[in-house]
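User: I'm new to structure prediction. If I give you an amino acid sequence, what do you actually give back? Let's try with this one:
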Amino acid sequence: MTMEVRIELKIGRIELEFEGSNQTFEAKIEPILRDLITFGKENFATANVDNQGGGSPKPITEITTMTVKSVATKFGGATGGALLYAAVASLAIMKKKENFTRQEINDEMKLAVGYYKTTYTNNLTSYLETMCKQGVLIETSKVHRDLSQGDKLLLVIAVIDKPCQIDDIRKRAYKAGFEIPRHWNPSVALGRAKGLVIRTPSGWEITEAGKQHLRNLGLSKISAAAVRVATDLRAELPKIKSPDTRAFAEEAVECYEYGLHRSAIVMSWLAAVDVLYRTVQARYLADFNKEAKRVDANWKTAKSVDDLGRMKEADFLDRIVAISVIGKNVKAELKHCLDRRNGCGHPNSLKIGPNTIAHHLEILLLNVFQVFA
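Assistant: Good question. You get back a string of structure tokens that encode the predicted 3D arrangement of the chain. For your 373 residues, that looks like this:
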């Protein structure tokens, strides 16, 4: 009959806490518990007697001197599951780690020379799932174990974010807690991911299509709708004639995708207002100067984009409304974007989330980039 067991044990500075089924307790926890009790009786009792006699305290040998191999011996670690319990016990009790990665568990298992087998690493996912179901472990960060081989490699390349060799991919994956199996052939797998990754003289590099593919799999902090705005804006980038403006817009999208919210607001506005400046300079300059002088007799005739930048951006929006470059409703929305840009450009308590940025980018996309770029 299955029963729930909960026990807390403290011996000196050593603490053990367990909650789970009686079968798990009897098979996995009780052997260590007995050793702890025996250890406490032999060491702490002797230490207390010495103290009562006025002598110097007897040095206490802590359980932290035990190795994962000695723990595996207590568990009878002849199986992968038993060795996994020993590795977890070593990390949690001896090394006092509250959280540990899959890779740390695997490395700890390998320390039990004579018990560890390479097949245990191959079956580690199954062992971990069993321990999670038993309540011994809690997976606090969900790993995308269902990803294909190509998607996992693609994700690693995306994290590196620069051209990389296969050896770089293996090292970065290992550092993140994922050891690429030796039987994998990363070059072949990446070669099949046509359009998602390219091989350059400097190494493998993820494409925009590859980044979008990862977002579609849910490997992104921003919502699907927000991703679509970024994708649409990226589609407009090649249409922007000015290299400087295009660079601003591209950086704005990158800031957005990396969660740099304030930077995305500022950079996207700079790109949008530059598009408007260039449009006025190329097609409406005479009318603009006339309207500017009508409002301010001291206005010095503008001849270049830099000259237009002398005017405050809010006033600039008023002037281009007056000469029908944009409508009043568009001006009102752009004014909101300008206010948001000003709020994000200075240290303050304003908080901006991905949905706000999505709205901001969409306004600029529909009313500036698609119309004037």
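You can read the tokens as a compact description of the fold. Here is one thing that stands out. Residues 44-64 have pLDDT under 50 and may be disordered.
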